[in-house]
Specification:
about 170 residues
Protein backbone atom coordinates (compact mmCIF):
# COMPACT_ATOMS: atom_id res chain seq x y z
CA UNK A 1 0.00 0.00 0.00
CA UNK A 2 1.17 3.50 -0.79
CA UNK A 3 -0.02 6.88 0.44
CA UNK A 4 -0.16 9.31 -2.46
CA UNK A 5 -1.85 12.54 -3.48
CA UNK A 6 -5.30 12.28 -5.00
CA UNK A 7 -5.14 12.03 -8.80
CA UNK A 8 -7.64 13.06 -11.42
CA UNK A 9 -9.98 10.10 -11.75
CA UNK A 10 -9.87 9.17 -8.02
CA UNK A 11 -12.98 11.22 -7.21
CA UNK A 12 -15.59 8.44 -7.47
CA UNK A 13 -13.49 5.98 -5.45
CA UNK A 14 -12.87 8.61 -2.75
CA UNK A 15 -16.60 9.41 -2.61
CA UNK A 16 -17.42 5.70 -2.32
CA UNK A 17 -14.87 4.87 0.40
CA UNK A 18 -15.93 7.94 2.39
CA UNK A 19 -19.59 7.01 2.09
CA UNK A 20 -18.90 3.42 3.17
CA UNK A 21 -16.65 4.49 6.05
CA UNK A 22 -19.30 6.72 7.59
CA UNK A 23 -22.40 4.66 6.77
CA UNK A 24 -24.27 3.92 9.98
CA UNK A 25 -21.71 5.73 12.15
CA UNK A 26 -23.53 7.17 15.18
CA UNK A 27 -21.88 10.61 14.86
CA UNK A 28 -22.37 10.96 11.10
CA UNK A 29 -25.15 12.72 9.24
CA UNK A 30 -23.98 11.19 5.94
CA UNK A 31 -22.54 14.46 4.63
CA UNK A 32 -18.87 13.43 4.67
CA UNK A 33 -18.56 12.36 1.01
CA UNK A 34 -20.41 15.53 -0.02
CA UNK A 35 -18.03 17.65 2.05
CA UNK A 36 -15.04 16.20 0.18
CA UNK A 37 -16.80 16.72 -3.16
CA UNK A 38 -17.66 20.35 -2.26
CA UNK A 39 -14.14 21.10 -1.00
CA UNK A 40 -12.74 19.77 -4.27
CA UNK A 41 -15.24 21.75 -6.35
CA UNK A 42 -14.39 24.93 -4.43
CA UNK A 43 -10.64 24.40 -4.92
CA UNK A 44 -10.30 24.19 -1.14
CA UNK A 45 -8.69 20.76 -0.82
CA UNK A 46 -5.21 21.91 0.10
CA UNK A 47 -4.06 18.34 0.65
CA UNK A 48 -5.98 15.22 -0.39
CA UNK A 49 -4.23 11.90 0.17
CA UNK A 50 -5.33 8.37 -0.63
CA UNK A 51 -4.22 4.94 0.51
CA UNK A 52 -3.76 2.98 -2.70
CA UNK A 53 -3.24 -0.77 -2.84
CA UNK A 54 -2.77 -2.03 -6.37
CA UNK A 55 -4.92 0.73 -7.79
CA UNK A 56 -7.73 0.30 -5.24
CA UNK A 57 -8.45 3.28 -2.98
CA UNK A 58 -8.69 1.96 0.59
CA UNK A 59 -8.75 5.27 2.43
CA UNK A 60 -8.67 9.04 2.14
CA UNK A 61 -7.84 12.11 4.21
CA UNK A 62 -8.69 15.71 3.38
CA UNK A 63 -7.05 18.91 4.64
CA UNK A 64 -8.45 22.39 4.08
CA UNK A 65 -7.70 25.82 5.49
CA UNK A 66 -9.54 27.04 8.56
CA UNK A 67 -9.98 30.60 9.76
CA UNK A 68 -9.30 31.48 13.37
CA UNK A 69 -10.72 34.64 14.91
CA UNK A 70 -7.36 35.73 16.34
CA UNK A 71 -6.15 36.21 12.76
CA UNK A 72 -3.41 33.58 12.89
CA UNK A 73 -2.68 32.17 9.44
CA UNK A 74 -1.72 28.80 8.01
CA UNK A 75 -3.95 26.59 10.14
CA UNK A 76 -5.69 23.63 8.57
CA UNK A 77 -8.58 21.35 9.36
CA UNK A 78 -8.15 17.63 8.91
CA UNK A 79 -11.16 15.66 7.80
CA UNK A 80 -12.96 13.74 6.81
CA UNK A 81 -10.67 10.77 7.36
CA UNK A 82 -12.06 7.61 5.76
CA UNK A 83 -11.03 3.96 5.53
CA UNK A 84 -13.01 1.22 3.83
CA UNK A 85 -14.92 -0.65 6.58
CA UNK A 86 -13.42 -4.02 5.61
CA UNK A 87 -9.91 -2.59 6.08
CA UNK A 88 -10.37 -0.57 9.26
CA UNK A 89 -8.09 -1.45 12.15
CA UNK A 90 -5.10 -2.15 9.88
CA UNK A 91 -3.32 1.19 10.37
CA UNK A 92 -4.46 2.72 7.09
CA UNK A 93 -6.06 5.75 8.75
CA UNK A 94 -2.98 6.25 10.91
CA UNK A 95 -0.72 6.13 7.86
CA UNK A 96 -2.89 8.71 6.06
CA UNK A 97 -2.89 11.04 9.07
CA UNK A 98 0.87 10.74 9.68
CA UNK A 99 1.65 11.42 6.02
CA UNK A 100 -0.76 14.37 5.95
CA UNK A 101 0.76 15.95 9.06
CA UNK A 102 4.25 15.38 7.62
CA UNK A 103 3.18 17.18 4.42
CA UNK A 104 1.68 20.07 6.42
CA UNK A 105 4.93 20.43 8.36
CA UNK A 106 6.86 20.46 5.08
CA UNK A 107 4.82 23.39 3.72
CA UNK A 108 5.28 25.34 6.96
CA UNK A 109 1.74 25.01 8.28
CA UNK A 110 1.28 26.58 11.70
CA UNK A 111 -1.12 23.91 12.92
CA UNK A 112 -4.04 21.59 12.37
CA UNK A 113 -7.41 21.07 14.01
CA UNK A 114 -9.65 18.02 14.01
CA UNK A 115 -13.14 17.19 15.19
CA UNK A 116 -13.27 13.60 16.37
CA UNK A 117 -12.48 10.97 18.97
CA UNK A 118 -9.85 12.23 21.44
CA UNK A 119 -8.63 8.70 22.17
CA UNK A 120 -7.85 8.20 18.49
CA UNK A 121 -6.52 11.62 17.47
CA UNK A 122 -4.60 12.05 20.72
CA UNK A 123 -2.20 9.38 19.44
CA UNK A 124 -1.00 11.88 16.82
CA UNK A 125 -0.43 14.71 19.30
CA UNK A 126 -3.82 16.43 19.08
CA UNK A 127 -5.06 17.85 22.36
CA UNK A 128 -8.04 19.81 23.56
CA UNK A 129 -7.36 23.52 23.96
CA UNK A 130 -10.00 25.53 25.84
CA UNK A 131 -8.82 28.68 24.04
CA UNK A 132 -9.61 27.24 20.60
CA UNK A 133 -13.34 26.80 20.00
CA UNK A 134 -15.48 25.28 17.27
CA UNK A 135 -18.96 26.75 17.85
CA UNK A 136 -21.81 24.34 18.48
CA UNK A 137 -19.45 21.38 18.75
CA UNK A 138 -18.63 19.39 21.91
CA UNK A 139 -15.34 20.83 23.20
CA UNK A 140 -14.00 17.44 24.28
CA UNK A 141 -14.09 16.31 20.66
CA UNK A 142 -12.37 19.32 19.11
CA UNK A 143 -8.57 19.20 19.22
CA UNK A 144 -5.55 20.99 17.84
CA UNK A 145 -1.91 20.37 17.10
CA UNK A 146 0.60 23.20 16.71
CA UNK A 147 3.10 22.32 13.98
CA UNK A 148 5.20 25.51 13.78
CA UNK A 149 4.95 28.24 16.37
CA UNK A 150 2.51 28.72 19.21
CA UNK A 151 -0.93 27.24 19.69
CA UNK A 152 -3.70 29.35 18.19
CA UNK A 153 -6.63 30.69 20.19
CA UNK A 154 -10.03 31.90 19.14
CA UNK A 155 -13.09 30.76 17.26
CA UNK A 156 -12.45 28.33 14.40
CA UNK A 157 -14.39 28.36 11.14
CA UNK A 158 -14.07 25.53 8.64
CA UNK A 159 -14.54 26.19 4.91
CA UNK A 160 -18.18 26.76 3.95
CA UNK A 161 -18.13 23.44 2.06
CA UNK A 162 -18.59 21.76 5.44
CA UNK A 163 -21.94 23.45 5.87
CA UNK A 164 -23.41 24.45 2.51
CA UNK A 165 -23.78 23.19 -0.98
CA UNK A 166 -21.52 25.32 -3.18
CA UNK A 167 -22.85 26.36 -6.55
Amino acid sequence: MIIRPENLGDEAAIHSVTELAFSGHPHSDGSEPLIVDRLRKAGALVLSLVADEGGEILGHVAFSRVEISDGVMDWYGMGPVSVHPQRQGEGIGSALIRKGLEELRAIGAAGCVVAGDPAYYGRFGFTRNDDLVLPDFPPDYFMALALHGPMASGIVAYHKAFYDDIA
